[in-house]
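User: Need the bound-state model for iron/sulfur cluster:
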Amino acid sequence: MAYVINDSCISCGACASECPVSAINQGDAQYEINDSSCIDCGNCANVCPVGAPVQG
Ligand code: SF4
Ligand code: SF4
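Assistant: Bound-state model below.
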């Protein structure tokens, strides 16, 4: 199950550089996870200052 970024994201960008498979990209409103690439490692959740990435 891929992680998803909820609407508390403040678009700081910290998660994108920590993703080992480059699954996180800046979307129109906030950062977004490509659910077909995400390997469920949890790095994004660990570095996010607001707890926006959650298991989907
Ligand atoms: Fe990338 Fe891991 Fe977050 Fe999935 S859980 S988006 S693989 S950092
Ligand atoms: Fe959004 Fe958290 Fe990623 Fe920053 S680290 S872009 S707040 S999901």
